[in-house]
Every structure is written in structure tokens, then in C-alpha cells.
Write a structure and sequence with these properties.
It is built from twelve helices and nine strands. The chain has a nine-stranded parallel β-sheet with strand order 5-4-3-2-1-9-8-7-6. By secondary structure, the chain is of the alpha/beta class. The longest helix has 23 residues, at 260-282. The two termini are 27 Å apart. Helix content is 48%, strand content 13%. It has a single domain (23-276), classed as TIM Barrel, CATH 3.20.20.70.
Length: 283
């Protein structure tokens, strides 16, 4: 629930998918990669290709949780002129055509601090952002942004890792809204994948501490992996695999080719088909 007592777009989407008997496909793109127009075209095409929720990466010079692929995407985006204000403008452009798909900003604290925390939370909500993942703000420092996010009706989504022990887990989850993001590996994005057995063991452990939807990310690259994660939990997050497809489609100068948008959206369609098929089998 948000401040007005209404369910957030994120809660509504997970509830609708639960009624359908399937998990969510959550796709990630880095804003402004490789340029504002191409990035916005991909963003606008994601819901139609099957993305249920969308994470938008806010480009940052030192993305410590991200692997080489997303680091390079951030560098391309910054070179293309990305700013936090520009990312919010991109969300506003998206909202002009789509009022239903939840949008989560994923990034780091420094750009928010520079923008101004109160101003950022107000502007993000006004732009149509539904939730925030601030990678480098741990629960112990949540009061840096949590009150402002709550006042703006923004869900604050927490990362839980395999190394989050039983004592710490309730503390991490206590301040979480929207959904829980399970980082399925120890390490940075896009480097390796968790095994089925590891995921099957981790999901019930987290569920004992929260009723929120649980999404699995980091290391999910293939339709099969996405389907399994969405079946075991409530959603699968795919990021690096899509960023890699985009990067491979660029020309020698790092510019988008005519089929860059299509290649990324075709990959999303194949992921979405697998997630939907897995849901039907499990239902």
C-alpha cells in the first residue's frame, strides 16, 4: 500500500500475475544506452514484448555491484549525456503511452544525493516511477532515503543475497516494500548463474520471513533459467543478457544499428514465452 492507501502498481501487477498462475518477467535496461532515442524505443517496446515490470538502470561512473557488461553500458550512457534528470524525463515519456507497467529505478546513492533526496523522491513519483533499488544503501542507513521514499509512495526494494544470514534477514526485509530482490549469486551481475538446487533451497528460507513477492536476479540469461526462476519464486530479473544483445548489435563506433531495438525486443519475447509457459505448467 502507498501513502494514499491504494495498492501500488508493483503490488497490483504481482497480484494480477498470481491470479494468472505465473511469475513475472522483469527486464532491465540501462537508460540512455547507447543513446536516448534508442533507449526510449526499447523502453516503450518492452511491455508489448512481454515485460511485466521494468527496471531502468541509472548510469553511474562507479557501479560497484555490476559486471563488465553493465559497466560498459553505463559508460556508453554517460557518454551519450545521461543524467538523473534525463532518466526521469525518459520515464515521463514512457508514461505518456503506458500507465500500467511498473517502473523501478535501479542505481546508486551518489546521483540521488547530488540531485537532492527530497526533490528526487518527489520528482521520481511525479514522473511515474514506482520503486527504487538503491544498491549501496544498506538497511542500517535506510533513514537516508526511506522516509522520503515512503512519503512519495515509492516502494523501496531490498537486495537479499545468499550470504544474508538468518539473523540479518528479518532486518533487511522489515523495511522492504514492493518485492524482494534475491541476488542469486555472490558477486557482480552477469558473471555466473545459481544452480536449481541453490535456488530451491534459498526461496523457502526467504519466504519464511516475508509475504512480499520474491524476484530472482543476477545470472539469469536464458529463457530456461528465467522460466525456472519465475516458477520457483514470483519473478525473474534479466539484465546482463539483454545488455549484451544490445552491445553486440552496435556498429564499430558504438552506435545503434537499424535492428538494435528489434534484436533486444525479440530476446524479451523469447524470455516472456518461456516464463508464461512455465507458469501454465505449474498452475
Amino acid at each position: 500500500m502507498n501513502q494514499t492507501g491504494a495498492a501500488s502498481r508493483i503490488a497490483e501487477r504481482f497480484a494480477a500475475l498470481k491470479r494468472e498462475g505465473r511469475g513475472a518477467l522483469i527486464t532491465y535496461l540501462q537508460a540512455y544506452d547507447p543513446d536516448p532515442a534508442c533507449s526510449l524505443a526499447i523502453l516503450r517496446g518492452l511491455p508489448g514484448a512481454g515485460a511485466d515490470l521494468i527496471e531502468i538502470g541509472v548510469p553511474f561512473t562507479d557501479p560497484m555491484a555490476d559486471g563488465p557488461s553493465i559497466q560498459r553500458a553505463a559508460q556508453r550512457a554517460l557518454k551519450a549525456g545521461a543524467t538523473l534528470a534525463g532518466v526521469l524525463a525518459m520515464v515521463r515519456d514512457f508514461r505518456a503511452q503506458d500507465a500500467a507497467t511498473p517502473v523501478i529505478l535501479m542505481g546508486y546513492y551518489n546521483p540521488i544525493l547530488s540531485y537532492g533526496i527530497d526533490r528526487f523522491c518527489c520528482d521520481a513519483a511525479a514522473s511515474g516511477v514506482d520503486g527504487l533499488i538503491v544498491v549501496d544503501v544498506p538497511p542500517e542507513e535506510a533513514d537516508e532515503i526511506e522516509p522520503q521514499a515512503r512519503a512519495a509512495s515509492l516502494d523501496l526494494i531490498r537486495l537479499v543475497a545468499p550470504t544474508t544470514d538468518e539473523a540479518r534477514l528479518p532486518r533487511v526485509l522489515a523495511a522492504t516494500t514492493g518485492f524482494v530482490y534475491y541476488v542469486s549469486i555472490t558477486g557482480i551481475t552477469g558473471t555466473r548463474s545459481a544452480t536449481s538446487a541453490q535456488l530451491a533451497e534459498a526461496v523457502p528460507r526467504i519466504r519464511r520471513h516475508t509475504d512480499l513477492p520474491l524476484a530472482i536476479g543476477f545470472g539469469i540469461r536464458t529463457p530456461q533459467q528465467a522460466a525456472e526462476a519465475a516458477r520457483l519464486a514470483d519473478g525473474a530479473v534479466v539484465g546482463t543478457a539483454l545488455v549484451d544483445t544490445l552491445a553486440a548489435s552496435l556498429d564499430e563506433a558504438g552506435r545503434a544499428r537499424p535492428d538494435t531495438v528489434r534484436q533486444v525486443l525479440d530476446q524479451v519475447r523469447s524470455l516472456a514465452e518461456a516464463v508464461r509457459a512455465a507458469g501454465k505448467q505449474a498452475a
